Amino acid sequence: MADKSQVCSVWVGSETGILKGVSLSKKQAFNFCEMSCLSRDQEVCVLGWGDEHETEVLVGSVNGTVKTFSTEKGIFTETRQCGESTQGRFTGIAVTDSALITCVETGLLRVWKEGSTDTVEINAGTNVCRMRQNPSQRNQVATGGKENGLKVWDLERPETPIFTSKNVRNDWLDLRVPEWVRDMSFIPDSDKIVTCTGHHQVRVYDPASPQRRPVLEAHFGEYPLTALSLPANQDSVVVGNTHGELAILDLRKGLVRGCLKGLAGGVRGLQCHPSLPLVATCGLDRFLRVHSLEDRSLQHKVYLKSRLNCNLNSSAVTGDVEEVKEEGGEVDEVWDTMEMINDQAKKRATDEEEAVVTGVEKTTKKRKVVK
Amino acid sequence: MDVVEEHDIQDKPTKKKTKKPKKQPKPPHENGNDSMIEKTEPEHVDAPAEFSFPPTFSVSEIKNKQRRHLMFMKLKQEKRKKKKKERDALGDKAPPKEVPKTIENQRVYDETTVNPEDEEVAFDEGTDEFSAYFNRLTNPKVLITTSDRPRGRTVRFCNQLATVIPDAHVYYRRGLALKKVIPQCIARGFTYLMVINEDRKVPNGMVLCHLPDGPTAHFKVSSVRLRKEMKRRGKDPTEHSPEVILNNFTTRLGHSMGRLFAALFPHDPQFVGRQVATFHNQRDFIFFRFHRYIFKNEQRVGIQELGPRFTLKLRSLQKGTFDSKFGEYEWVLKVIIYYQIHVKCCTSKRYAISP
Q1: How far apart are CA B294 and CA B303, in angstroms?
Q2: What keywords is this UniProt entry annotated with (chain B) (predicted)?
Q3: Cα(A92)–Cα(A184) distance, integer angstroms
Q4: Residue B23 has pLDDT above 70, yes or no
Q5: What is the layout of strands, in order, in the sheet containing A256-260?
Q6: Do A40 and B119 touch (CB under 8 A)?
Q7: Which residue has the higher pLDDT, A358 or A167?
Q8: Which domains does chain B have, with CATH numbers?
Q9: Mutating which of A305, A366, A368 best tests the B interface, going by the most B Cβ atoms within 10 A?
Q10: B65-90 and B2-10 helices cross at what angle (nearest 10)?
């Protein structure tokens, strides 16, 4: 189990409660779960890294438990009860300085400190759809939801948010524009936050500027946007909607740069790789797809038998890709690395697998009708 | 010549026999001193004769279409005989017979095909929205309605569907919004809502919504044949629950659809009624047929088609009850349309669903 989990570069959580690890270089997917005690209330809502070295995956389930999965050991090491299922599903999970931050749909944002049972609680309004942590300033989190605008909280001052957004002006019929923040992301190297809404809008807010209204607004499609991610290079954002349409939008003017094709079902999880121009998407059509952002082509497609809720990329993907590139070259150094890979592959082949292994195919087929 | 040609047309299967009478009158003609006839005759004479072709003659040079066709058929027969002779002569060493390529042969294997022993899929299906029906906790109760202001054909189709599906009730739409109808249906214990959409006096769409919180499937309906239009049909269906046959629902999406259709009918079919409803999936079209069968002896069955017949094509499968604007879609049909110039304009209303 341990060697399987060490190879996995993408982690996916499914509705059946199974944590799946996918190794793109080896083109295999593994299930990490206890098959005997599967149940729907263990449905994975959120995934997050437990630490900066990406050795622990935090898995948040519907019944309120947060399990810690160790990638090195390949087993679930810890289970914590962080609330009950009556309080709603997890909408965000994050870690700062040995404290766990969780947010549920009813708006209860809690910071669980290790060792002590008391928690710092923040009420972020009702109907929160997503909570995200600022990667550069780890004590800032943003929340947003249905009729609940974007709010940025500092965990050291939990009474009031440091930034509350204001809704845009009334439209041309003088009617209030409904708000529904589905996902948000902090733009690195600046204070700005990008959100996508259920009314197919993408908005950029700047807390540093005096206006609380969005600085930029863009539209895409006619269906609710469910997920958003920022790729490694600046000035663009990848969004996905409930029809499986993925688009890359440019944040300078708000125009659509291109669409990624292939998805047949609603996008539930979307994450760009931290350094490479790749984006991994998972959704209700039970496939994990990896697209390249430069030429918008499909790189990998994996069939994972349950509906998928969220995915998490590890920077280990760089390792896989670099090894592949080195195999192409014919340098003496490369021969050594090639031999090493073969030995490891042999070892893995001889290991008996307890978990279910499914095959992955690279798509070359093109069909008119997408399933 | 006319007489000979008529012979030709009438005695096509015995064309070899007609060749002989043809040849007989011709030699006397050729023996005639008319040089014109000699020049024109060779074209006519040489064509049916097989042994005196000029070297570069081919069947396609015969101008007469019927004769050309006949010659071609003969040529093919000769070729086939020759091939069979060669094959028989080789005996065991003959190369294996080539299987013709069909669309079904050439299909790329779909990786989402469900393996019957797969535990994960079994768990997924055991706990999904239809599990209440398959665990025998609920009985199906179907509400059939249409889009607003249906015309006669659609109304008759709905009534016939109500006879085919046991415990189905037809209600007039009265312009109600589906989102408001659904909570009322749930309150009254319905398990399915079926909305037949009509366009230009003909049913063309169906929305099938599994009720408590289940998936909503939107289909395109085509080739609807009502009972009067069916040839050699039997008497009207009785109240017995039919058996259900689901063919070729092999992929994961197919499994979901199969369960959707199976949950429309009561759990236990009444074999006394000898009625069967078939949903046959081929190339993503689902053909619905309703038959009554009778076993004449142990090997032979007679069937009579009753009831309406229609074909469905899935356009989208949405998780949750009907919500086309904000719902999440599990599968959406995405077609790459190559723009063609339409002679008739197809109105955008054709596939609209009135919510």
Answers
A1: 6
A2: Ribosome biogenesis, rRNA processing
A3: 11
A4: no
A5: A225-229, A236-241, A246-250, A256-260
A6: no
A7: A167
A8: 105-349 (3.40.50.10480)
A9: A305
A10: 50
Contact B328 A226 (CB under 8 A): yes
Distance CA(A152)–CA(A162), nearest Å, equals: 6
Residue among A215, A206, A213, A131 at smallest CA distance from A179: A213
Does B331 sit within 8 Å of A371, measured CB to CB?
yes
Cα dist from B21 to B24, B41, B72, whole Å? 5, 15, 21
> Given this model, what pLDDT does residue B234 score?
85
Q: Average pLDDT of A25-52?
A: 82
Respond yes or no on whether ipTM tops 0.90.
no
| Predicted TM-score (pTM) above 0.90 | no
**Measured distance CA(A337)–CA(A160) in Å, rounded:** 54
Give the DSSP letter of residue A87.
G
Interval B162-217: pLDDT, tens: 999 999 999 999 989 999 999 999 999 999 999 999 999 999 999 999 988 889 99
Contact A265 B120 (CB under 8 A): no
Q: Report which DSSP code applies to A171.
A: -
**What residues of B are in contact with residue A284 (Cβ under 8 Å)?**
319, 328-331
**What φ, ψ does residue A229 adopt, rounded to 5°?**
-155, 150
Show residues of chain A in contact with B336, CB under 8 Å: 368
Pair type for strands A99-104 and A108-113: antiparallel
What stretches of chain B adopt beta strand conformation (E)?
Answer: 142-146, 168-170, 192-199, 202-210, 216-225, 243-247, 275-282, 285-295, 301-319, 328-332
Give per-residue pLDDT as tens, A117-143.
777 888 888 889 999 999 888 889 999
